[in-house]
Amino acid sequence: MSHIKILPASVINKIAAGEVIDRPAAVVKELIENSIDAMASRIDTYLEDGGRKMIRISDDGVGMDAEDLSLTFQSHATSKLLNADDLFAIHTLGFRGEALPSIGAVSRASIISRTKWALQGAEIAIDGGVLERMKECGAPEGTQVEVRDLFFNVPVRKKFLRTIPTEMAYISEVLTRFALSYPAIHFTLMHNTRTVFNLPPVRETAERIATFFGDEMRNNLIPVFLREELFTLSGYIAPPFFDKANARMQFIFLNGRYIKDSAIFRAISESYHGKLMHKRYPIVFLFLQIAPSEVDVNVHPTKTEVRFRNTATIYNYVLSALKEGLNKSAPKSSATTSFSQRTEKELTKAGDVDFIRGSLWEQFSFGRTSETKDMKGNEDVPLSVSSISNRDTLIPPNKEEIAPAIPGKHTEENPEKFFNTTRSQKGAYAQTPGARDWKENVFLAEEINKKKIFFQIHNAFIVEETDTGVNIIDQHALHEIILYHEIERNMRESQSLSQRLLIPEMIELSLKDFFSIVSIKKYLEELGVEIDEFGQSTIVIRTFPQILRHLSGKEFIESLLAELSDENYLKGKDTILNKLISIMACKGAIKAGQRLEPQEIEELLKMKESIHAYTNNCPHGRPTTLFFSLDELQKQFKRK
Amino acid sequence: MKLSFSGKDLYSGFNLVTGIVPSSALKSVLKGVKVEVKKKQVEFVATDLEVLVKYILSAGSCEEEGGIVLPAIRVNNVLREWAGNEEISVLIEGCNCTLRSAGGYFKIAGEDFLQFPEIGKIRTGGFVEVDGEIISDMVEKVVHSVSTVKVRSMLCGVFVRIIGDDMVMVAADGNRMSTIKRKVNNPEGVSMEGIVAVKCLTFMQRFVSECKGVLKLGMGEQQVYFVGERGEIVSQLIEGKYPKYDELIPKKNDKRIEVGRNELLSRVRMASFMTNEEYRVVKFVFKQGKLLLSSKTSDVGEAELEMAAGYDGPDLEISFDPEYVIDALKVSDSDTVTIELGDGGGAALFRTGYEQMDVIMPIEMK
Ligand SMILES: Nc1ncnc2c1ncn2[C@@H]1O[C@H](COP(=O)(O)OP(=O)(O)OP(=O)(O)O)[C@@H](O)[C@H]1O
Ligand SMILES: [Mg+2]
């Protein structure tokens, strides 16, 4: 990490210019990246006033000698990149030599650093871009960067800084990402003398996930893995019932770097197709290792955007790895510990590990947690009451004020307001996502010991008594998703059977549809639909999947065209397969308006219990089940 | 107008026509049975607008003419209870009807019989005659192949063709076809053909089981008529052009295997135990003197069964949906069945009886 060079002009021009530092969190990100590049094993972050007054980051990395230190605040001074070719072989997080100069230009900053071999450390300071003289000083091995009065000389920027809690939320998010990506590094975060995080090194990312998002999430994580020649994907995905209202919980790391990439986002949502409701997002933690030659990270100064040499390949890799993971997994509901147990464990932990899991949890919270746990852990305590009291105990009172918030939809909409309510969180819980989503959630029943009451209303809905309330089930939607899973499993596990037709079916199509079908002929054939072109715009179906025997070829082709029409961009085999399964499930499912015999209802409910897959939503994303707690009912009837 | 019947006759006639009454109909008159007296005969008529059924009883000494539409289900319930009674008298006064028998009476509100849909004039080139039980049996032997997929509507019926004294019935869905041929009495030498709805044919089977004897069959452009001594059935023919069934019968299948019908049926059925709804396939492997049947389904299990077979050619392998084979064998009355196969995965021919066969397409694994 020594020998900082001034980059030749040719490289400077190649590097995208632009503002990198827009808020304290950006400073934290740049400084931590530098520490990671310096091979630090511990990185401490200390903040005052949400980083507006002071940001201090110290590491135990390789440090800099006096000569290098004198160059750090110069533009395009980097030890990480020598010429333009290196841009395509970037193994470090930084490479532009821009971060420190940009920070130094808008703050009062200083760096103290010492290498292993130096006896003395050195300090250099910069004041609004004006370099001060270097001094020798005593220092521990490693580097400490202190940034004070950020934007003191840029009043416009300063005006746009948000409240302390909002800035803290951004910073926490930055730290969360690093912590997930570098489990072996010890991270701490202090804010105004209070510890926000203390994350000792752990062997696996899963442990960090547990720390941030709770043990239940960890226990349900589905590991995913895929290795190809220039590409490795590892990580975890959460089962569909841990869904979120936004994509913020989709952590994608490319060669250690947190990135956002639309192709990967698309692959994620496609892999969860049919398992999530419209506008809900799955939770994933994906770590991609890609040969640096295959990806350009120098697209945008913040480096969260990248450009892959072959986007389609990456898309397919991610899609297939995730699908495989989802197929393998069955929800292990029994593995989840009871909520009260968990609270106990956490309380004891909270004693020695000083971070505020409670409010982080709150920010990332997902719907189902409290309900299911309560059902098992605290049977006689009414639902909402018990979850509130349990959640309260999660946050020891003395930690309230340091609660940083990872920006979720709440902080975005009204960050100030959110933070002000932290002090009175008791009352605020009713509005948290966790509590609000609960009605959509299916009660995950364990063994049903006693006979439950159920009946059909309006020939369309099933009312089911549960231990803690009532489920109202959309019979068509539930049957549809059950069939969807059955068919999908069958299709994937076995060779698909294709019936050769005695009387080939001719279907006349519009020219546009004709070409659409002809363009996916190859995939259809793989699925057992052999098609020939006939004349101008007629197709002839020669073989047809056995599983679709209740459908005519015409119906099938028409449904397929209808389902595919708005997704022309990706007509891969998997997409078509998914559509196909949706079509089959929909056609096969009992319809609304169909009278069901008690035995049939029982059968359906049994299937719901026994199927090891996600049944909260039908393949089109509509909910299958609404749950009303007894407690809620009692409240509505003013019995409470 | 007063009529009188034996409880048994009245019930069996009324019950038969009630079978066609639609359970839900927009016009309430269609939920009824028309009782009309004319020419010293009482006609009981019901229709769902596709099939119309008429059952005839003697009016006895009643000389009057007139009628009423009676609520089908309600009256049928009454008549069922009184089916054992010696005599039931029926008094029709305008739109009211009084049923009276030993120990009580029912006065039932009916509807104007003139509102009831009429059958148009019979339009057919002529009639052929055939024993009701034979035609009923023919339906029995092919009806399993009728398509249940509504879109290809012409396959949703049984194709009936009469040429000379041959009557052929054909049923096919996209994947298999059944045919049977029998002799009819065709004094006028008429030729006719049409696609008859399954509903009409199954009703005809019920009719035949109630009233034995010779049936006259006629087909026009749009309708089919079955006329028996005690009544008649008229049905709309299914529109459309039926596929040229004789071209679908494989002609070059030169590998012939003879197998015992019962044995094959039980083996295929057993092999099918190891399949499920989504994955239905049984593999047939023909070897010298024997047939191996096997099935394998993940999550279910596998089976392999062996049986004797009259075959001495090279080893042959072909897979079928077991249900198709079972369907064909179930309606076979012979002791042995001949399977005729060609080279390379084309249609298989199952000769399951005299002039009776099933063409079944194989399943391919992708
Ligand atoms: N914590 C640190 N420990 C050791 N060296 C450091 C540290 N921070 C910065 N440096 C040195 O200072 C140089 C300049 O850092 P700076 O962040 O400005 O640029 P960079 O990391 O090379 O590129 P980028 O602008 O993309 O972050 C680095 O190349 C590195 O050699
Ligand atoms: Mg840097």
Automatic annotation (TrEMBL), chain A:
Kindly state which keywords UniProt assigns to this record, in alphabetical order. DNA damage, DNA repair
GO biological process terms, semicolon-separated: mismatch repair
Xref: InterPro entries? DNA_mismatch_repair_CS (IPR014762), DNA_mismatch_repair_MutL (IPR020667), DNA_mismatch_S5_2-like (IPR013507), HATPase_C_sf (IPR036890), MutL/Mlh/PMS (IPR002099), MutL/Mlh/Pms-like (IPR038973), MutL_C (IPR014790), MutL_C_dimsub (IPR042120)
Q: Which CDD domains match?
A: HATPase_MutL-MLH-PMS-like, MutL_Trans
Q: Which residue numbers delimit the DNA mismatch repair protein S5 domain?
A: 209-327
Query: Which residues does the UniProt record annotate as the domain MutL C-terminal dimerisation?
Result: 453-596
Q: Please give the superkingdom of this protein's source.
A: Bacteria
Positions of transmembrane segments? none
GO CC terms in record: mismatch repair complex
List the GO molecular function terms: ATP binding; ATP hydrolysis activity; ATP-dependent DNA damage sensor activity; mismatched DNA binding
Please give the function described in this protein's UniProt entry. This protein is involved in the repair of mismatches in DNA. It is required for dam-dependent methyl-directed DNA mismatch repair. May act as a 'molecular matchmaker', a protein that promotes the formation of a stable complex between two or more DNA-binding proteins in an ATP-dependent manner without itself being part of a final effector complex.
Q: What family does this chain come from, according to its entry? A: Belongs to the DNA mismatch repair MutL/HexB family.
Name this polypeptide is given: DNA mismatch repair protein MutL
Organism encoding this protein: Candidatus Brocadia sapporoensis
Q: Which gene encodes it?
A: mutL
UniProtKB/TrEMBL annotation, chain B:
Q: One GO CC annotation, please?
A: cytoplasm
What GO MF annotations does this protein's record show? 3'-5' exonuclease activity; DNA binding; DNA-directed DNA polymerase activity
CDD domains for the chain: beta_clamp
Identify the residues that the record assigns to the DNA polymerase III beta sliding clamp central domain, covering every copy. Answer: 130-244
For this protein, the record's InterPro entries field holds: DNA_clamp_sf, DNA_polIII_beta, DNA_polIII_beta_C, DNA_polIII_beta_cen, DNA_polIII_beta_N
Q: Which UniProt keywords apply?
A: Cytoplasm, DNA replication, DNA-binding, DNA-directed DNA polymerase, Nucleotidyltransferase, Transferase
The yes or no answer to whether the keyword Nucleotidyltransferase is present is yes
Where is each DNA polymerase III beta sliding clamp C-terminal domain found? 247-355
Which Gene Ontology BP terms does the record give? DNA strand elongation involved in DNA replication
Residue ranges constituting the DNA polymerase III beta sliding clamp N-terminal domain according to the UniProt record: 1-118
Cellular compartment(s): Cytoplasm
Q: Which Gene3D superfamilies match?
A: 3.70.10.10, DNA Polymerase III, subunit A, domain 2 (3.10.150.10)
Q: Which Pfam families match?
A: DNA_pol3_beta, DNA_pol3_beta_2, DNA_pol3_beta_3
**How does this protein assemble?**
Forms a ring-shaped head-to-tail homodimer around DNA.
Role noted for this protein: Confers DNA tethering and processivity to DNA polymerases and other proteins. Acts as a clamp, forming a ring around DNA (a reaction catalyzed by the clamp-loading complex) which diffuses in an ATP-independent manner freely and bidirectionally along dsDNA. Initially characterized for its ability to contact the catalytic subunit of DNA polymerase III (Pol III), a complex, multichain enzyme responsible for most of the replicative synthesis in bacteria; Pol III exhibits 3'-5' exonuclease proofreading activity.
Protein family according to the UniProt entry? Belongs to the beta sliding clamp family.
Q: What is this protein called?
A: Beta sliding clamp
Naturally occurring in which organism (per UniProt):
Candidatus Brocadia sapporoensis
